């Protein structure tokens, strides 16, 4: 559910709010992925809960999970809206302002070419001369994905144990309350201590809900790692196409040289045919040379175009990657510091509970 401004300068008034399904967000992101392959496209939040601790519902329709996913989708829109290139995209603007935005996507011809382009981005290409920067970036993305996954798993195990520790304090509260019933002079102190323990045990639900917020921030960069790898794969594809075009051009030039000299230095079916059925006539050779000459001209144009395309991609991609690195460093630093502050606060609350309990015991 999107809240929008009611008036937009230069455009028709837009609705106060719009409804969007998760699948529509997926369509928008795929459109951005295909249209801007040199950009690290912000990821969507998880569709199904991952890295959950056992007391947390894994139900996709659980209200708490649905709310966290809504916040994640809102964060995705904010990421796109703050991007220097993506924020100016016409389809993105229509997504925010028009109910019929999908018709505009159809008109771009995106759907006709998206399947092949997305499959190409998911394919693996072995290039002969890989760019060291992109190779290192791809390796870093794999490592980032690995460490964030491990961190989320550890956090889920800690949450399980933390939940148990807090709830055990509820048993303290029950025992102190029962004990207070048989003690006349110590009864009030025991009862008060029991109330402190009960309140401490009940506070774990809010604490772990807050923890989920920090876990979601880590998950975003777990998914961002895949977005970075998509940029690397696109570069590999362009490099592969350039190398293939260059090899094809070199092969055509070799054929031209051999045909002009009347020699064949490499084994070929055509060479065997010539030996078996006689040499080609000068007219046939001249016709083949003419065809090869045209193919070489086309090949040189293709290599030039592919070279320029690859160079332009590298320039734009590396500019966006540097922007992403700054964003990542800032976000993860803030998230980890906030998580540490929350843990410190939680420990202080535990100390305060037992300090209060001590004061209750001292008054008995």
UniProtKB/TrEMBL annotation:
User: A single Gene Ontology molecular function, please?
Assistant: phosphatidylinositol-3-phosphate binding
A GO BP entry is: positive regulation of autophagosome assembly
Q: Give the matching PROSITE patterns.
A: PX (PS50195)
- Keywords noted in UniProt: Protein transport, Transport
Q: Name one Pfam family in it.
A: PX
Q: Which residues form the PX domain?
A: 1-102
Q: Which GO terms describe its cellular component?
A: early endosome membrane; plasma membrane; SNARE complex
Q: Which domain of life is it from?
A: Eukaryota
Under the heading PANTHER family, the entry gives: SORTING NEXIN-4 (PTHR46596)
- UniProt record similarity statement: Belongs to the sorting nexin family.
Q: What is this protein called?
A: Sorting nexin 4
Q: Which organism is it from?
A: Scleropages formosus
């Amino acid at each position: 559910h999107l809240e929008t401004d009611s008036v937009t300068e230069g455009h028709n008034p837009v609705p106060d709010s719009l409804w969007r399904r998760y699948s529509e967000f997926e369509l928008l992101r795929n459109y951005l992925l295909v249209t801007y392959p040199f950009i690290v496209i912000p990821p969507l939040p998880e569709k199904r809960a991952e890295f959950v601790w056992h007391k947390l519902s894994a139900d996709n329709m659980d209200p708490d999970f649905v709310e966290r996913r809504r916040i994640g989708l809102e964060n995705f829109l904010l990421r796109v809206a703050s991007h220097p290139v993506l924020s100016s995209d016409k389809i993105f603007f229509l997504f925010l302002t028009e109910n019929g935005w999908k018709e505009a996507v159809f008109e771009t011809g995106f759907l006709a070419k998206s399947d092949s382009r997305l499959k190409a981005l998911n394919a693996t290409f072995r290039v002969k001369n890989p760019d060291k920067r992109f190779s290192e970036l791809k390796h870093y993305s794999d490592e980032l994905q690995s460490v964030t996954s491990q961190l989320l798993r550890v956090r889920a195990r800690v949450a399980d144990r933390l939940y148990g520790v807090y709830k055990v304090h509820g048993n303290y509260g029950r025992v102190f309350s029962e004990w207070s019933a048989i003690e006349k002079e110590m009864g009030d102190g025991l009862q008060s201590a029991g109330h402190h323990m009960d309140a401490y045990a009940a506070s774990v639900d809010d604490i772990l809900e807050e923890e989920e917020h920090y876990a979601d921030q880590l998950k975003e960069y777990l998914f961002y790692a895949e977005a970075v790898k998509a940029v690397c794969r696109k570069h590999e594809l362009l490099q592969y196409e350039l190398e293939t075009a260059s090899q094809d051009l070199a092969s055509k030039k070799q054929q031209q040289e051999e045909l002009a000299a009347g020699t064949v230095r490499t084994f070929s079916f055509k060479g065997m045919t010539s030996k078996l059925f006689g040499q080609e006539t000068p007219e046939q050779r001249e016709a083949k040379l003419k065809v090869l000459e045209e193919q070489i001209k086309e090949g040189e144009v293709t290599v030039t175009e592919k070279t320029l395309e690859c160079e332009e991609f590298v320039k734009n991609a590396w500019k966006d990657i540097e922007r992403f690195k700054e964003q990542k460093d800032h976000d993860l630093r803030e998230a980890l510091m906030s998580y540490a502050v929350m843990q410190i606060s939680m420990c202080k609350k535990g100390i305060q509970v037992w300090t209060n309990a001590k004061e209750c015991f001292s008054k008995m």
